[in-house]
Amino acid sequence: MSEFTATNEDFNDPSLQGGGEIIFNNEVPVAIKSENDEEEDNATILVRIKIIVVNGGDDVPQHVRLEMLCDSDLFFLYEAEYAQEDFEILKKTEGLTIKFEEFPQLLVEIIEQYITEPDSYSLLFEQQSEEQSTLRFQQQLKFKLIDILALDLKPASEEFVKDSIQYRYNAAKAEIKAAHTELNDLYALLKIKNPTVLKKMTTRK
């Protein structure tokens, strides 16, 4: 794995390089079915799904993008992006009845169902090849498993993956620094308010 180090520059989420707003950012369990994997039981991993909306005029999105990444595998990063014309194709193939401006909220509502009702809903990530994958939103009915929605995903560019790793490294480093600052503030407060307790804390082995 390549080594990435933090810089002195302010770091920004690369998901927002093209502008827009992150309307969903949460971890979800996803079953992984790799290419040529014939086993019925697929490995399940925890992935982070982000939904980004770049607004155009009149409250109609210019782009809607879904990103799927994994904190345990920093190079696992897939994405799907939809403009109005892309959505119209998806709408036809998937039999959707909503408008493009309703699409982001539909994605959020569906994914939240998978978090709150894991026994009834599941996500399956199928890797047909290195360049072609499908994220299937599935519902378990009484006698069968059906697809609610299927989105074609592609691997993110090498540059975007690198920027994402750098961002996550910097964010983790900032969190650690903030935790150390909070701990030092607590020590300073105890030194003034209750030095006896502080002495016990610092001498305890």
UniProtKB/TrEMBL annotation:
Residues 22-153 form the Spindle assembly abnormal protein 6 N-terminal domain. Transmembrane segments: none annotated. Gene3D superfamilies: Spindle assembly abnormal protein 6, N-terminal domain. This is Spindle assembly abnormal protein 6 N-terminal domain-containing protein. It comes from Tritrichomonas foetus.
